[in-house]
Amino acid sequence: MPSHPSRLRVAVVGTGGIITGGHLPALRAHADRVALVAAVDVAPERLAAFREAAGALWDEGPEAREFTDLDTMLAEARPDLVLIGTPPSLHRAQTVAALRAGAWVLCEKPLTLSLAEYDEIAAAEEATGAYAAPVFQHRYGSGAEHARQLIASGELGAPLVAHCQTTWHRDTAYYSVPWRGRWETEGGGPTMGHGIHQYDLLLHLLGPWVEIRAMASRLVHDVESEDVSTALVRFENGALATVVNSVLSPDEVSRIRVDCAEATVELTHLYGHSNTDWRYTPRPGLADEARVAAWRSPADDVPSSHTAQLGGLLDAYAAGVRPPGSGPAARATVEFAAALYKAAFTGAPVRAGEITEDDPYYSAMHGDHPDWSPKR
């Protein structure tokens, strides 16, 4: 394991919008615990823009340096933590390189484009003792943690019916970016690139799933992958759920609803949530006002954010334990995506655990299906 200084040495890889818009505010919020020591990008002009955006975070770190090569940065800057915000096809190799250099990793979603890639990262973790976590910031924040505790404790009664909805809109210009809409560089369509945040939160709330049936289609966009998918899911606890992932929806919304025996809990937002975005509706006839008031009143209001997730990772680093949302939890979300694609493309139900190394959907989300493979 790496040493534990009072302030962790942090490097960012990729200096585009997700780093400046999500990770820089998180680093500022935890400036007493981290020191920005390096930034990596192949484009010098983006590095210059990042340095300006970082402001005091960069200026107060006399060691802070710019790099255009990841391996050189890892060797010379020796970061404790690497934040990765590059296009998806680069995530596996960059994460493995950082782990082998002894750094922990917080990488934008999707952490990998397949289960095979995920297992390469797991092997690198095992070999190095360092850890890698994907950015799934919707798991974090007081509203999500409160809802998870209420469901897990049985306070809301048994989970019965759930809905998970990511209905967003992306136009043709969005797909003009060369790596978008291609299996090799994005790993899939909205199932991988957009809805993954919401169904990751659904899995966080409801636990393991056991069976999935699905459909997917390419209705509007001229891309390799799907632009809409739908799924029916059975969970280990018996709950049944629907999951919708779309980039065809003019009225954009992100939503999760879980109907339990005693109450419905519902989250409605777009790209992030706070306590006010969560709603609890008691079953008809439940008149215990104090009990219902407790459901609706988490102690704090911590929004879901990169800031909240980075705080959890820093706590784990200080304790020398695996960060939350990594390891088996992160793999379960990648497996869910692979199973959804397999169910959609084959028309057959998929059971949890059935996608093993000899399954074509283990190595690629398209599974070499003749109608969906990029070789078609």
TrEMBL record:
Residues 8-130 form the Gfo/Idh/MocA-like oxidoreductase N-terminal domain. Residues 146-265 form the GFO/IDH/MocA-like oxidoreductase domain. InterPro entries: Gfo/Idh/MocA-like_OxRdtase_N (IPR000683), Gfo/Idh/MocA_Oxidoreductase (IPR052515), GFO_IDH_MocA-like_dom (IPR055170), NAD(P)-bd_dom_sf (IPR036291). It comes from the Bacteria. It holds the Pfam family GFO_IDH_MocA_C3. SUPFAM superfamilies: Glyceraldehyde-3-phosphate dehydrogenase-like, C-terminal domain, NAD(P)-binding Rossmann-fold domains. This is Gfo/Idh/MocA family oxidoreductase.
